[in-house]
Every structure is written in structure tokens, then in C-alpha cells.
Amino acid sequence: MRYEEDYKQRLWIVDGPSETCTKGAVVTFEGDTDDVKIQCSSEKQPLGKGKYVDGRIEGESYWIDIIERKPRYKIEAKFKNHIGGSWTAEDTSGGNSGDK
Questions:
Q1: What are phi and psi of 26, to 5 degrees?
Q2: Cα(100)–Cα(10) distance, rounded to whole angstroms?
Q3: Which residues pair with 88 in a beta bridge?
Q4: Model confidence over 28-42: pLDDT tens digits?
């Protein structure tokens, strides 16, 4: 399943911070495709619950996309109505992190 490979099994470190998730923070993904829970380590509260749909995680007030796969995976979170700005995070799990 791509959700596991693309999001859950990676170590995400924020490299493009926003008001809601600071540089160096760890972002984790938990739950299954219909009940994704996202936590940024610099925030007390997790992002609202989301769903994995066609490679994207969509919540009520945000969406997260993979914007690069090589040389390393990179994701970007954007927020509806610019609440919280946006942030990017890079996969730092080591090894060959691009698609095989």
C-alpha cells in the first residue's frame, strides 16, 4: 500500500517551517488510510484527522502532497484559507529513499 511506503515508513523532518510546524520538527503519520493522524513534534495538538486519497492526505482544513521523490522524498503541507501557512518536510530515514 502506497500510504505505508510514502508516508508512515519514513522519518520526516521539517525543513521549510511555518507558524504551525517549526524547522527541525519531526512529522509523524499514524492510523489507516481512512483515519490518518498527523503530528508535528513542535505542536501540542495534532492536525485534524485526514484521509489518504490518490497519493494525497486530505483533511478538513489542510492537504499534504509528495512534491519530490528523488533524490529524497519531500512533502508539502498547505492549509485552506492560509491558516497556519505551509511547511515542507524531507525524508531523512537514510538509504535510497527515492522510488526504486
A1: -95, 135
A2: 15
A3: 16, 76
A4: 999 999 999 999 998
Q: From the centroid of its chain, how far is CA 12?
A: 7
Cell numbers representing residue 55 in the block: 497519493
What cell does 36 get?
A: 490518518
Sign of torsion, CA 49 97 17 64?
Answer: negative
Contact 90, 13 (CB under 8 A): yes
Instruction: Centre a 10 Å sphere on the Cβ of residue 21 and count the other Cβ atoms it contains.
Output: 26
pLDDT at 86: 77
Identify the H or E element spanning 3: helix 2-3
Q: Which residue type does 66 have?
A: I
